[in-house]
Fold each of these.
Amino acid sequence: DVKVTQSSRYLVKRTGEKVFLECVQDMDHENMFWYRQDPGLGLRLIYFSYDVKMKEKGDIPEGYSVSREKKERFSLILESASTNQTSMYLCASRQAGQTFGETQYFGPGTRLLVL
Amino acid sequence: DQQVKQNSPSLSVQEGRISILNCDYTNSMFDYFLWYKKYPAEGPTFLISISSIKDKNEDGRFTVFLNKSAKHLSLHIVPSQPGDSAVYFCAASGGGSNYKLTFGKGTLLTVNP
């Protein structure tokens, strides 16, 4: 079974703080993703990484950056947290090279509150 | 521009009856479609998928139907159980990207005992 873990389930931060969200997967997947989920907006892709040290912007990258130094770990960084970044953050991973099957495996999520 | 649309924010059904969740898409390049289920405070879990070369895929109580000409897919749950109560997300891939999934906004299904 694929296991995707996220470093925190709940986080409370202050406006302007630098925030690190960590994600680790144990299935040697090449592709990793960061989403945020907001009521009425569904899941929106922030950034993804198709391999180590590779990254691409998703649909809403503003205010975020990422780091992928090791295959199993993908970090999301909020450079200067703002209240509109209060959200549920979800990490996912996927094995590359599938003809079909964009199945992504998700972690449990980090609920971030920015005060 | 919303490429995957779930127009019903919520759906309520009685236990034992059929639940039908609908999804429409606009990008004709999408070639693979998935349904995810999400409970509160948990990550989404993969439920069932279908490729564009099929029009139906079945897994136990769950069946997904794809109508390519209408750019429409639906998820049928028969019989519905209270444990099926969750948010269901429709997602699609293709359209030039091998990596990205485009998600709908989700439908909250409530199955009443």
Amino acid sequence: NAGVTQTPKFRVLKTGQSMTLLCAQDMNHEYMYWYRQDPGMGLRLIHYSVGEGTTAKGEVPDGYNVSRLKKQNFLLGLESAAPSQTSVYFCASSPGLAAKETQYFGPGTRLLVL
Amino acid sequence: AQSVTQLDSHVSVSEGTPVLLRCNYSSSYSPSLFWYVQHPNKGLQLLLKYTSAATLVKGINGFEAEFKKSETSFHLTKPSAHMSDAAEYFCVVSGHGSGNTGKLIFGQGTTLQVKP
């Protein structure tokens, strides 16, 4: 049971390039989330999904797109990377309504946009 | 709307002394509250959570937190710090309300330094 895994661990992009971050969970969780972590700001929710085929915007969705084609995977895409998207990205999953449920986090992806 | 404020960005203690990390929250609803810990270059791990049961919540590694509704606080404590406790700690409130899916709202984080 690997829990939540993220690919890649680290990436450097040039401004304007695109990339996709992959999150996979093997716990059969319905809910999945993408956060970004910036110094002094905690984690902020980018997008989330309440089930296969559904996605919704979080607190800071601009510049990102997501897809949840399979229950176990949640993809985060950057169509045209900007330096402001330099951050650490965390994926998380939970079995149900996160108000009372624990969210399980992946190890993170460090992204540097030059 | 929910929000959470961690009152200290950095706390330094000596090994073997008590730890207190302070957190105040704001919520229009009965909140669920969490403390997560993040060790350097690692993901976040749940320490403990409050979900309207006992107000004193015990977590892993000897940590505990007390929910005080009158003070809107959820401070994290540990009687005796260990070197391995050095990490960043996040106080988190879970959103409630119509149409909400329980999105987590994070505090800014408190860095705990433990000196030998």
